[in-house]
Amino acid sequence: MVEKVDRIWMDGELIRWDEAKVHILTHTLHYGMGVFEGIRCYKCPDGRSGVFRLAEHIHRLFDSAHIAEIEIPFAPEELIEACKETMRTNGLTEGYIRPLVFIGDGAMGVHPQDNSIRVAIITWKWGAYLGEEALQQGTRVKTSSYNRHHVNVMMTKAKICGNYVNSVLAKREAVRGGYDEALMLDTDGYVSEATGENIFLVRNGLIKTPPLTSVLAGITRASVMTIIKDKGMQVAEQRFTRDELYTADEVFFTGTAAEVTPVREIDDRRIGAGRPGPVTKEIQTTFFQAAHGELEQYKDWVSYL
Ligand code: PPE
């Protein structure tokens, strides 16, 4: 359950949590055409609170809206400031920030015409996405019976609300089967991503991640790729199959919510030694340090409240 806070930012105003309601004819509620972001804020060792790659997330929100032909009635700078203001108003020193752009009520039918474009920013406390144990010990994953979207069926570069029906179906199936997360293959049968995370494999010192075809251009993915290169290791954006994951030395997920989560098992096969490997652990450690503003090299990634 999301823990209630005092205020939600809606259409330019900080209103009470209980008043952040919409009409049942809200277009996005019926047809799923809306866009959103997920951003984390960390409490840093120096006592400040830093939002991780806030500007990049807001720019991706605008890119998603552009793909979806939604005109956001605010400037990126206004939403950047609104994210921080919502955190501060709620007295949150760390947590998750969810900007949501949706089409309001008015016309029904799949052509939304000139229905209003609404914007909300919700903040809440969010611990480890796949559980604290997964972060430490690794997670158990099952290949989904659902494919990730075909690139001409959904716009996969956009974080569109309706795209997540596919994720919800796959996640439920995986959890019902006793696994933590679903691995999704693209419509050609290659590995794409998980329901809310990008994926990486490590084998013989070489790191691979699927190219940006049917997957979301993860901001954590990009950050981790920079970290890998800065460590003098190589990372290739390359298509691979599920059996290449089975024989990998290490596999891990990246995502704002999931952070860097090791994968210890896929389709009932142990990955590597069945526990987080050295490369994953090193990347995870550096990622957390960077996100907490501890590394000079990545100080531009953190924007303080
Ligand atoms: N792929 C998908 C499908 C995805 O939803 C996410 C983020 C990523 C990759 C990683 O992207 P990034 O966060 O920029 O590194 N998923 C968000 C929503 C999770 C949810 O359950 O809600 C997130 O991590 O915030």
Structure overview:
By secondary structure, the protein is of the alpha+beta class. Helices cover 27% and strands 29% of the residues. The chain contains 8 helices and 17 strands. The strands form 2 sheets. Strands 8, 9, 10, 11, 12, 13, 14, 15 and 16 form a 9-stranded mixed sheet that branches. Strands 1, 2, 3, 4, 5, 6, 7 and 17 form an 8-stranded antiparallel sheet that branches. A hairpin with a 2-residue loop joins strand 1 (7-10) and strand 2 (13-16). Helix 2 crosses helix 3 (76-89). It is globular and about 55 Å long. The protein starts with 6 loop residues before the first strand and ends with a strand. The model has no long low-confidence stretch (mean pLDDT 97). The site of ligand PPE has 15 residues, from helix 6 and strand 14.
Topology:
Layout: E1 7-10, E2 13-16, H1 27-31, E3 34-36, E4 39-43, E5 49-52, H2 54-67, H3 76-89, E6 95-103, E7 117-124, H4 132-137, E8 139-147, H5 164-176, E9 181-185, E10 191-194, E11 198-203, E12 206-209, H6 219-230, E13 234-237, H7 242-246, E14 250-255, E15 259-266, E16 269-270, H8 278-291, E17 302-304
The chain binds ligand PPE.
Order of helices and strands: EEHEEEHHEEHEHEEEEHEHEEEHE
The percentage of residues in β strands lies in: 25-35%
Helix content: 25-40%
Q: What is the number of beta strands?
A: 17
N/C terminus separation = 25 Å
Which ions and ligands are bound to the chains? ligand PPE
Poorly predicted segments: none
Estimate the mean pLDDT confidence. 97
Structural class, judged by helices and strands? Answer: alpha+beta
Instruction: Work out the radius of gyration.
Output: 19 Å
Number of helices: 8
